[in-house]
Structures are given as C-alpha cells and as structure tokens.
Write a structure and sequence with these properties.
Radius of gyration: 24 Å
CATH topology of the largest domain: Aminopeptidase
Largest sheet: 8 strands, mixed
Shape: elongated
CATH superfamily of the largest domain: Zn peptidases
CATH architecture of the largest domain: 3-Layer(aba) Sandwich
Amino acid sequence: MIEKIKNLANSIKNEIIEIRRYIHTHPELSYEEELTGKYIAKKLDDWGIEFRHGWVNHGVTALLKGDLESNNIIALRADIDALPILEKNEVPYCSQNEGVMHACGHDAHTASLLGTILILNQLKAHWGGTIKFIFQPAEEKTPGGASLMIAEGVLQNPAPNFIMAQHVHPPLEAGKVGFKSGMYMASCDEIYLTIKGKGGHGAMPQDCIDPILIAANILLSLQQVVSRKGDPTVPSVLTFGKINSVGGATNVIPNEVKIEGTFRTYDEKWRKTALEAIEKMAIGIAESYGGACDVNIAKGYPFLFNDEKMTPITKNWAIEFLGAENVVDLPMRMTSEDFSYYSHEIPGVFYRLGTGNKAKGITSALHTDTFNIDENALELGCGLMSWLAVRALGNN
C-alpha cells in the first residue's frame, strides 16, 4: 500500500504543483475566500467527488468512502485563506492580488489535501471507512473559521472520531516531518487599549492629562502580569506590537493613544486570570493619572493539544512511510492555530511538513513577504497524509 501511494503521489505531483501555484497566484483574505472556495468545489466536481460548498460562506467539505467494510470515520483539514502581505517573491506564480499573499502556506495545505483526495479515490478498493475532507476558511482571523464551521456542524453527519492536519514548516527541510504529543501551541487573545487623556500644548503639560505618558506606564507595568503574577512553569507571552496616538505632534499632546497586543499561554485558568489582571491594571493606572482606559479583549483560539494516545501512533505510521531519519520531534510553540478548536472537540493530531531547502535559498519564515516552499514537499504532503488516513481508519 505504501508503494501504491508513493507511486500515485509521484504521478500527480505536477498537477498538485499547478493547483498550488494557481491558489498562490489568487490569494484571498480571511472570510473573503469566494473564488478559492469555488475553485476547490470545481476540482471536486470535475473529479466526481461528493462535496458541500458554503460552510462559513466559502468553506468546502468532501466525503470519500472506501470499498472495504468499515464504520470508522476520520477527518482531514486544510485552511484556505491568505494574509494581508505584499509579496516580494520574483516567481511566475507571484500573487496577482496586491497586498494579499499566501505567506503561511495555506495554498500548499489546500493543494496537498486535494492531492490526498486524488490518491485515495484511486485506491478505494484497498481501504475501508469514511473520510471527511475539510477545506476551512479564515484560520488567520479571530474568531477563526474552525470555531464557526464547528458551530455549523462540520463535525457531525457523519461525525469523525479523529482529525488530522499538516502545516508547512520552513525550518524543516523538505522530505521531513515533525510531531509533538500533548500541549503544542498556545492560546491567543487580542488586546486593544484606548487611553484617554486631555490634549494641549506640549510646552504646558500641567494643563493636560498626557495619554502618551499614561500609555508608557501601562506598557511597562503590564509586563509584571507575566513576571510577577504568573506560574513560572506555564509559558506565557504578553506582547504589544502597535501603538498610535490620535493626533499629536512634537509640540502637541494628543487626546488619545491606542495600543494593540497579544496574550498567549497554555493554561485556561491562568489565561482567564491574566486577562482580568491586564484589564484591571490598565484601567487603574490610567485613572491614577486622571485619565481613562477602554479595554477590549478579543478572546481568540484556545491552546492546541495533540492527542497523547494518537500522536505517538501517528508518528510511527509516518516512520513506516518515510523512515525514522525523516521524522523528528518538535518543541512547544507560542504561535497559535485555530485547529485547536477541533482538538478540543475530538482527538486530533497537527503535524509539520518540512518545506525548506537551504541549497535552493528557500529559508524565509512564515508570515514574511518572501516566504516560499520547496514544491517537492507537495508530493510528500499528499502521499503521507494518504497513508496516515488509511492507517487511522484501521487499514494496513
């Protein structure tokens, strides 16, 4: 079966690269993936695959049943949205939508999952069970397409008892994959602060309530939330990445300052406590200076947990397909992923697909304007996922 899958993955490699390049050329932002969804649906329709289009407006699901007798049901997921980044790659398939780019590899995820469908559809006589393929919009933007698709019933009718997804990983060379059992990725919340003061002439601060000064003290003080209130054994990050005054100049104190940041951790109880502390401290500090602070916390994705029973098993299946030298262990990450919503509903495994190639100069990180992949990884992407699906359904 491994050889059958590998041969088919090799035979469709050029087609999957073409699909990836088309999607890369036509990226769409979260919740705006209209053409991407239609493209996926058209492919499935051309291939005679049962599908449903319109989840969270643009998402697509497909169903594939093997010919052998089995009641097992699993799900495989790919995200389809892009990022608001102006691409600087000089490639024939560079983004044609200015300011929008597949800088997180979702084009590769989608192409790989379509390739998996092609492979498994041709091998239906050799496996049993049902696979639900989920092409999910809006992974990049709160509240996350995963949560919305779950609310719309994507994990029902039929209800999978296990779900997998892969994500490109540029630090890992193409040809390798990585796994991490248990806690893997952090929760992610967005913090928006509006500090209100009283503007005026910069030479007469005594007549003003300076929101710049208040903002500076809030930023410095909030770092104590992690360092002085948190459990040092629980990784946490509080980062503010944007600050902007509403008006103001070298000699003008503005009325308002806006600050945006993120809080990430791995513990839900501490997460709640920390967010409450952030709000209380920001408001209290602003008031102590005679100003005010409006706090808006957009609760984002929960932590991502890889099932501790299934992850080691899945890793061993990957070793069967690739060899032990090509399967590595991964550390925890403070980045976040809305696949976490699925992992809180049913057992899930989220693994990494190596896409880097130092010899070819393909080393740019995710979410950068020069991110790219070694497209040879697409053959492995669809081949390995096909094998993992077959094994997860109980087939050998």
